[in-house]
Amino acid sequence: MKQQPWQATLPAMIEPASSFLSITLPQLQRVDHPDFASAGISVDVLRLDTVHPVVSGNKWFKLKYNLDTAISNGAATLVSFGGAWSNHLHALACAGKLAGLQTLAFVRGELPVPLNDCLADCIANGMRLVPLSREEYRRRHDPSFVTGLLENIEKPCVIPEGGANIDGLRGCAEILQGIDQAVFHQVALACGTGTTLAGLLMTSSLPVLGIQVLKGEGYLRGEVASMLSGSGIIPGVDWRIEDRFHRGGYARVDGELLDFCRTFEDTTGVPIEPVYSGKLMMALCEMAATGVFPAGHRVLAIHGGGLQGKRGYFI
Ligand SMILES: *Cc1c(COP(=O)(O)O)cnc(C)c1O
Predict the structure, then answer these.
(1) Is the shortest distance between the CB of 306 and ligand 1 below 6 Å?
(2) Which of 22, 47, 152, 291 lies deepest, with the highest CB count within 10 Å?
(3) 87 Cβ below 6 A of ligand 1
(4) What distances in angstroms separate CA 81 from CA 115, 127, 128, 205, 234, one per listed residue?
(5) pTM of the entire structure?
(6) What is the pLDDT of residues 21-70, one digit of tens each?
(7) CA angle, residues 220, 259, 312, in degrees to nearest 5
(8) Which residues pair with 81 in a beta bridge?
(9) Closest to 186 measured CA to CA, from 279, 270, 284, 274
(10) Where does the pLDDT of residue 8 fall: very low under 50, low under 70, confident under 90, or very high at 90 and above?
């Protein structure tokens, strides 16, 4: 792949984030599920949930270069945004601690009392939590609002919600490193902001299928298209986003989805949670059962991690 202009190498004296965020290579695991077997397709899951004990899944990849940038810019405090069950904030708190940087999170809505497990972990890793009202939170991309929030914060470096920026993309471009793509026909993953999908498109030689976990017909297709053009990425493979599997919206779950997650885990031994990986696997099962994939099709599914969020559901 051609070197992109923003793929500058770090100055030599700076220790890259990958040195303190040590990574275990993600396992590739065959998913033995009856829906896949009856459709005559195979699904292998790339277990990004196993790369690091806390900095889980695609968030590890999104944070890696964000930390490098923060460190090389002399930042003292990593600042970000997220909901009360944010996998991104959970990962950031731990990554910041490992990097020796302070972390501060602006949390959407009131802080739950008592704190939920996710935010309690964030605090245990030294993160400061500041609640924003939902109205304030909506202004998180407004530079003048954010500048106001940053007053009195020591050398802040803002990482957007979900790690959705160019450094996040660069990290996600490395997800398929070491994978023999030639044995698959397609990559599939769950999409929230679409950053992971856009990053994958930089290095994937396979068509990429995104399962949108939030509501909004065609919404992510547009977001990803503008992310790609804004970053000068011209994908060499087909990509598409299915927007019909969100089950009512982001983090909306129902009994059928929770049942699916339980049964799927028991059957396959692959742990999933209902917000991302559960919706992805349910979508793949439904697509397999309705004949969307030709027999013999081999799917590489990306497990985005984030299993900590499961603690918010009774499964
Ligand atoms: C954040 C997250 C995603 C969504 O990634 P995007 O790059 O925002 O599309 C998917 N799965 C898990 C587990 C996540 O935590």
Answers:
(1) yes
(2) 47
(3) yes
(4) 17, 12, 12, 33, 29
(5) 0.94
(6) 877 889 999 999 999 999 999 999 999 999 999 999 999 999 999 999 99
(7) 70
(8) 106
(9) 284
(10) very low
